Amino acid sequence: MGKGVIIAIGCMIAAFFGSGILAAVTGGVGFVVLLGIGVVQALWIVPIWRSFRKMGETETAKGILIMASIVFLLNAGCWGFIASLNLH
């Protein structure tokens, strides 16, 4: 599972910097990608997870799903907290 965790962390870091570059080039589109990481990560999680499952590396696939779940829950929790502040 450690291998899957490391792969997922690497992909998340690449997505973070990639969205920053995209924001600089397009003038803000990357921020939408960055703020919606919980949903956007499904675009890369599912293919990577399937490829490791197909290769028979189920423990690596589990590690990838665990990290994706943690990121999704942290993102949802942070957005929930921000929404609860009721900043008007």
Name its key features:
88 residues; mainly alpha
Topology:
Elements: H1 2-26, H2 29-35, H3 37-40, H4 42-54, H5 58-84
Helix pairs in contact: 1-2, 1-5, 4-5
Succession of helices and strands: HHHHH
Structural class: mainly alpha
Helix content: over 70%
Strand elements, count? 0
Mean pLDDT reading: 79
Number of helices: 5
Strand content: under 5%
Q: Calculate Rg over CA atoms.
A: 15 Å
- General form: globular
Largest sheet geometry: none
Low-confidence stretches: none
Overall tally of structural domains: 1
For the termini, the CA-CA separation is 44 Å
Task: Write a brief caption for the model.
This protein has 88 residues and is an all-alpha fold. 86% of the residues lie in helices and 0% in strands.
Model description:
The protein is 86% helix and 0% strand. It has 5 helices and no strands. It has one domain. The radius of gyration is 15 Å and the shape is globular. The protein is mainly α. Helix 1 runs antiparallel to helix 2, helix 1 (2-26) packs across helix 5 (58-84) and helix 4 packs antiparallel against helix 5 (58-84). The N and C termini lie far apart (44 Å).
